[in-house]
Amino acid sequence: MKVPLAGMFRYGALSILGVLCIGPIAVMVLTSFKTQAQTFTPGLSFLFVPTLENYRDVIFDASFGRYLVNSLIVGVVATLLTLLLGCMAAYGMARFSFAGRKTLAYTTLMLRTVPLAVIAVPVFMIWSDWKLTNSLAGLILLYVAVNLPFTIWVLYGFVLQVPVELEEAAAIDGCRPWKVFLRIVLPLIRPGLAAAAIFTFRIAWNEFILALVLTDRSTRTLPVAAALYVTDIGVEWGKLMALATLIALPPLLFTFLAARQVISGLTAGAVKG
Amino acid sequence: MNSNTRTAWLFVAPATIIMVVACLYPVISAVRLGFFEWSMGTPWSEARWSGWTSFQIAFTEPSVWRSLWTTLKFAAVSVSAEMVLGIALALALEANIRGMAFFRSLFILPMMVAPIAVGLTWRYLYDAQFGLINAVLGVFGVAAQAWLAEESLAFAAIIIADIWQWTPFVFIMVVAGLSNVDASVIEAARIDGARWWTTTMRIKLPMIADVLAITLVMRLIDAFRVLEVIYVLTFGGPGESTEVLSLHIYKTAFIGQKLGAASAISVLLLAVVMALTWLALRLSNPLKDSEGDR
Question: Looking at the DSSP assignment, which residues form a beta bridge with residue B37?
Answer without folding.
Answer: B48
